Amino acid sequence: MVVGAALAALVALPGCAPAGYGTPAADYGNAAEPASNEVAASPGATAEAEADPESTAEADPESTAEAAPGDEANTPEISEELTTTQLTATKVAKMGETVQDQDGFVLYRFDKDEDDPAKSNCNGDCAEIWPAALTNDGEPSLDGVDESLVGTVTRADGTKQLTLKGWPLYRYIGDKKPGQWKGQNVSGTWFVITPEGTKNLTCLPKISKPVAPPAKDDAGAEESEDSGSDYSY
Fold this sequence. Notes:
mainly beta; four-stranded antiparallel sheet; globular; disordered C terminus
C-alpha cells in the first residue's frame, strides 16, 4: 500500500514524467532508440515545452563529415555574432540540467545525427529552425562542462559546429528567451542536452511540431519565423 501510494504521487507530478522514471541519463549511441520510446510523454506539457503546431521537422538528406587533413584553410570564417563562445552547465526549473550558450539559451541534440564519429544531418530548412552552435576555433569558454567532452564537426557547408560527447549542438528558434526549452521532444527527435552529453528526459512533454523556418521577403531578408506553415524537408 505504501509503495503504491508513493508511485501514484510520482505520476501526479505536474507537467513532467516522474523523476527517475525510465532512464533519464541513457544514451543510445547514434540514437538507435528514441527517448520517446523509453519514457511516457506527460499529458500536461508545460508552457515552457510547447511548440508551434503548424509544421513538421525531418532531417536534411545531406550530412557532414570531418574535414580531411589540410582542409582547415578552406573552413569559412564565421562572424563573431554567429558563433557560440561559451558552454555553461545550468539548472532550470522542471527540466534540471541543461547546457546553455553565452546568451543563456538552452542547447539541444538531434536523434538523427551521429556521435561516433560526429556527424550533423540538420541542414537547409532544418538548420534555419535549429541553428548550429558554430565556432571558429573550437575552444569555447566552459563552465561546468568537461573539456574532454567538447569537440567539433565540419558541416556540409564547411563551417565548424561544436559537439558534446560527439553530439552536434543546436539552439531552437522557438525559444524566445534565455532558459526556455520549447524544443524538448519536438518531432520526437530533439532533446535538451545535459553537461554529460546525454538527453535530459526529466521532463518529457508530448511530441510536438517545430515552428516554421524564417520566411524571407523578396529582398532575401528574414521575416517573422512564425509566418508560413506548410513546408517539408
